[in-house]
Amino acid sequence: MTHSDAPTASAPAGLRDRRGRLLRDLRISVMDRCNFRCPYCMPRETFHESYRFLGSHERLSFDEIVRVTRLLVRLGVRKLRLTGGEPLLRPNLTDLIGDLSAIDGVEDVALTTNGTLLAKYAVELRAAGLQRVTVSLDSLDPQVFMRMSGGFGGVEEALEGIEQARRAGLGPIKVNAVVQRGVNDHTVFELVERFRGTGVIVRFIEYMDVGNRNHWQRDAVVPSRELLQRIASRWPLEPLQPSYHGEVADRYALGDGSGEVGFISSVTQPFCGDCTRARLSSDGVLYTCLFATRGTPLRDRLRGGACDDDLLDALRALWRDRSDNYSEQRRGSLAGDGERKVEMFYIGG
Ligand code: SAM
Ligand code: SF4
Ligand code: SF4
User: What is the secondary structure of 161-209 as a DSSP string?
Assistant: First the structure.
């Protein structure tokens, strides 16, 4: 693999979309399959045993992923996040991480996982160049956890994954918890309590209407503001500055200095204005919004001999033409409910 085309040489510094947003982040879904069936993401009634996931030849190869990433780095991408499905189900993932970390211009390589395989791979992942992990853990209550994972995995496995990741140096570790009213919102205190003083940052995510299959209801969303008030009644919270431009979580320090919590409020406080993220599906479709109804397929072009310059032109035009702001539209109830959106497991979070 060569990484000869230095990203800065031809970088049109500051490629901006139609709303003036730079391209900075790339989320790469390396695997559409998952070993969980979280009802808010991959409900079992749809993703059952005979659901047809991608075959291995349909997924982008590592070389293809690296090639697309190199091109997007030339257009401004600096941060990469590997996701899925469950990214740690992708065989030999560390090889890909090694190649991605070696791309000139890449400043950060992170991974989002449900944590089941993290204890096993943490050391290898770090050695390959992974910098940080985010572990999804919706509740410490075993029954609530099982309900939210669709009956798979376990709290202890996730906690062990977090511990091994911490030891391997994959920090600062973030824990993501999707909050659903009446399902796990009564267990959020335990999450804050459990990770206080450990350096692990817990972030609460508003339940989103991603895809078309999770039967999303607005009533099930616990607005971050409400959650914040509840948490602040137990631990005073002090707002913190974003750690970088475009950070999706609003950060708060626990008043006693024991840590930090975050709130990701895509539903009630959309952050489209700062959205610098592109998403690559495991079969090579590039999306410029998590709620997109269509993306740009790259796989056939990659396999059909397209040269880098042609691909670059297409990618540049794609970002320039982008005007996505789904969450802002949703707030104004303009979002197209009838349109078929891409599924979360397919492009990652
Ligand atoms: N399987 C990995 C995991 O769960 O961490 C990575 C992929 S998962 C799609 C990425 C993130 O999306 C997870 O933190 C998950 O909780 C979040 N997510 C999935 N469906 C969601 C929804 N409907 N609303 C909010 N977050 C969601
Ligand atoms: Fe799998 Fe992650 Fe979706 Fe849960 S949220 S079903 S762990 S991809
Ligand atoms: Fe970005 Fe789309 Fe989310 Fe808005 S709705 S923040 S444009 S991914």
Answer: HHHHHHHHT--S-EEEEEEBTTTTGGGHHHHHHHHTTSSPEEEEEE---
